[in-house]
Request: fold
Amino acid sequence: MKISLNWLKDYISLDESPEEVAAVLTATGLEVEGLETYQQIKGGLEGVVIGEVLTCEKHPDADKLKITTVDIGAEEPSQIVCGAPNVAAGQKVLVATLNCILYPEGAEPFTIKKAKIRGVSSQGMICAEDELGLGASHDGIMVLDTKLKNGTPAAAYFNLEDDTVFEIGLTPNRADGASHFGVARDLKAAYRRKIKQVDVSDFMVDNTSNPIEVIVEDAEACPRYSGVTISNLTVKPSPDWLQHRLKSIGLAPINNVVDSTNYILHSLGQPLHAFDKDEIKGNKVVVKTLPKDTPFVTLDNVERKLSADDLMICNESEGMCIAGVFGGARSGVKDTTTSIFLESAYFSPDFVRKTSMFHGLKTDASFRFERGTDPNMTVLALKACTLLIQKVAGGEISSDIVDVYPNPILNFEVTVKYKNVDRLIGKEIAHDRIKEILTDLDIIVSNETEEGFSCSIPPYRVDVQREADVIEEILRIYGYNNIELEESYGTDFLADFPSPDRDKIQEKVTLLLSSIGYNEILTNSLTNPEYVEKSGIWNSEENVMILNKLSEELGVMRQSLIFSGLEVIKYNVNRKQKNLKFFEFGRTYNFTEGTYKDDNHLALFITGNQSDEHWRSDVAQVEFHDLSVVVYKVLNCFNIGEIDSEPAANQSFEYGLDLSVNGKCLASVGQLKGSFLKATDVSQPVFFADINWNALLQFSGKKLLYKPVSKFPEVRRDLSLVIEKNVTFNQIKKLALKENKKLLKRINVFSVYQGENIGENKKSYALSFILQDEFKTLNDKQIDKVMSGLIRSFEENLGAIIRK
Reply:
């Protein structure tokens, strides 16, 4: 949400710097996420001044150029070559001085520099309207009618005023802060200053020639509906001041009537809507629901099918507007509109939220109605908007105000005890200061005793309905920073904090992966149900369905991280970024045996080349082992110990491995099936690893024991085995360790060969064996004994042939 500082000053006096105001707002709970400067004209006309043309003579070498001398308030006049046909001596003009940057209409900015034009020195530029970004005209230079001194900044002539805009991260509970007036209320309490109330004393009904009958059939969905008619107005562009106010907070001006409703919306937080009165058939406004699937064309010219719960603003025969959400295409204000019916209502947040979600429509109005507006603001905002429309569009008030409010919404009544204030805040605050804070927040304090008091809270504070809420209000205005830190604290509740810290473990793995070139991604847990159907692996009946889905493409919760990761890969590959390494911590979801389940996973993706092109090395595509070695690094962070590997049971792979400990699979790694790539339009091989994060965290408490480095040397011996193709390295490793685990420290494959020279269905492994005794140096006899035992075991159990 954007809040303009200049606009804010309409309601409260602020002499503090924008940074100081931002700090106060953040402290009160309206967190300022950023500050930006808004300029009515880009560049603010900095370096542009008023000048007076003293002389104007024809250029000797150019028919269309003239040599002028211009007084710009400096010690000496400036000589400027000008090509405008209307330049003449005696004129007051706008001059861009040297080093000034101009931002022309529809063109690139440029800097004014000292130049020679056809041999004549030129020290500035006399400007046309489009060159300053003031309009589109380039017929000639701007000639001013002013008595301002030469050298006066152009910004002063045009009354340009820079503005500071606060970007506020409004939390869902603070609907009261969704306007400039609402923000001013918080500053009133924080600074203890008066707030400027909205003055509608000039409101006066001119006649009652255009009355509109209002019928509210659903008072639960629409507790209050107010409106008035304005006739004989003229729809046209808004004046500059109004356009700039809206532009400063990112809104595009439309016309003077619509802009007025938007202005009051962002001023007071009360949405309004203007209907073309000629479209109100029967001079009746009926607030009701319409039958399910009734077609309705909204302002964006999209036909939507209504639900049976959509509250509509109708005329005698048809719908005109989706209440609190979006207007209709036919009933809105047009250039030809001369009379309007102006609506200001309070709609139930529940009804608006349901309708907004059903249609996937989010507007400034629905944003506020969903969270809860002020039911006591409708008439005040209606009068303020009416007066503004009369100011910018003319017209006369041609009906009495209609205000249908059968069941007024009462204040929230809460009892507060001082002992609870002290207990929750952790500090005793003077009772007078507590009353002062609450009064400044428009909360009425009554029935005061030594034990506590009663509060009457206005209904626009939808988040303050309990004692704890009132105490929070006291604390946020008193200031969290004003609660002193003590040397020790006690608590009446101790949380069962997990040990070790899961977040720190995840951070450790994140740092490991990022240090070896992997980038973290964060993808949507919502996914396309077609992925499950096309995979042939997961069961669509186990999908967790989204009841209020915004689209079919985001209709279910994901059962795997594969497809959301492939979508990221596709996005990057389509933008010529083909060498990718990604990881993601995420959840998967399924519905099994009547129970919803979710699991935490760590997913790794690699695709493309191992490295970028370089003149010192050849480019090679990534392979299975480029990813598997990273998976082992992650597992080794947990001091797991011996890891078993078997061919992957995971049907997502063309080929792969399952890595397990004590029979529990911790990770699967392999090359993804081509059908998965086809489903997501990925055009290059992708290797994927799925790590069961919850299972892996069970090893996080395992202590790492230090073992002194042996003083005695390692010994390496190599063997070359010819074995059957189906024999895995894991089988060889297990057999070797079973034969001699005491002296055998490490086993490694350093060469693999398959070919005609060793026979069909055979392969050759070249293995290295590292032997070491931690208490003495090994001799040849001991080493030969170990190697002989290994050879015998390989021959007997694997049918291996030892190559000499």
